[in-house]
Amino acid sequence: MMSPHIDRRRLLAAAGGMALFAGFGSVSAATPKFRRYPFSLGVASGDPWPDGFVIWTRLAPDPLAEHGGMPMVAVPVCWEVSEDARFTRIVRSGEAVARPEFAHAVHVEVDGLRPHRPYWYRFRVDGAEASTAGTARTAPAAGVGVDRLRIAVAGCQAYPHGWYDAWHHLSEEAGLDAVFHYGDYIYETAGHPGAPHLQVRDAAGGIVDRSHFGDEIYSLDDYRRRYAQYKGDRQLQAAHAAAAFVMSFDDHEVDNDWASAFDQDGTPPEAFALRRFAAMQAWYEHMPVRRAQLPGPCGIVMHRRLDFGALLRMHVLDTRSYRDDQSCTQPGQTACRTGDAEATILGDAQRAWLDRGLRNKAGWNLIAQQVFAMPLYETAGDGTRKLRAGPDSWSGYPGARKQLVRSICRHDLTNVVIATGDAHIHAVGTIPVRDDEPDGPAAATEFLATSITSGGDGSSVPLKRHEALLAASPNVALLNDQRGYQIHDITAEAWHADVKVMDRVQTPGGSLDTLARFVVTPDKARLDLS
Questions:
Q1: Cα 348 from Cα 368, distance rounded (Å)
Q2: Handedness of CA 54, 55, 58, 64 (dihedral sign)
Q3: How many Cβ atoms from other residues are within 10 Å of residue 382's Cβ?
């Protein structure tokens, strides 16, 4: 990885925003009178580098009101980073400007810190109580040996489907270096799904209204309000305050099953582009990401790479922005593609970027992405095994999966782990070198983390469809329908993965348990129970 200072300058220039960013702090700013607490959406940190990380907040004294209850003026916000939780050893501080053009969100790229140690941060604004404090750990220095890393994987948090107790449990996980959020941070749909099996109740059994505020979202203000509703949850705020997040997005940050210029309804691309740009601006405004992820006239560049010493290289992919449309699965279906086995899910430029990044000497390579990469199989009527259709997953792009496998094999890598989400289940398995040999050699292991709430309580009893898939898929070791997240403890000798499950999410106070533990060694893409 390039030095953070050189890389930061290059990314700023590439964003075409030098003048814009230079003006973030050189503006005539106002100091409004706050009648309510302005840090109602909490604080967050993200994208740890050896010398620092991003810290984030947004001023929103009335989160669901127009403009979050803020006047349309720029407001100065002070920030502090300390070596201790009591802020007696402040090592970095400064002033940022919360601008109305960015929903009064603040992104500070803190640098000048020491590698691989925890720091605490907070924000202040005149006339109001200081923000809560968050903590984040810087990454280990480039090329340095690391004894251990601990990374959580979570996502898919449909607000109407349940309580965020899983985020509370994750906030209490000790020693996290980072949390990879694979996407579906918000859902774009209207209201509550209304299905009886997804009703949310309070501790006394009464039905609780956790409906989305408003109709399906299209405009920038719509998306901002939806993020405000989600980020107002205290348990989600606690998780953000506990560790640095590495953020990506999947489909529901824009529209279900969107693919580059196409939505699922056949909307004209020029109309969908307006919705997509609004969604991406709101995503940037509410995520602890760097200025390199600011959307521009050519879209957003979300894919990026993070190095954690000599132990781990994390490749964060974008499987939405550059993919071809999903394949048609039914006769007469529209708003989809027909044929083209070589359709791409990454696009040529991102695929080449990933291939270059896999040429490294890291102890492990983590491909952090959004949708099922491993193939699943089912038994046909004549008893033979066939590939299960998956138009929105890598199985809908078989040529792209072959390219990924070829890239891994060409670099002679045996240490590739893929972290995934989207499917609202826990799934653990391997990526076969050949789709037609699921019980043959594997190129990588995959850990697909279930949802935080999406899909409701789920079931601890194995589903019949999962049993059928497991029987036909020798490359798959686990399928589970409960909610939760995953914890990955990484050393040079082994990768340990804990599959965490909640007993319930549709009523509060759900408990967490470890369903299974897997171990992978870097010399072979193979799964063993720990």
A1: 18
A2: positive
A3: 6
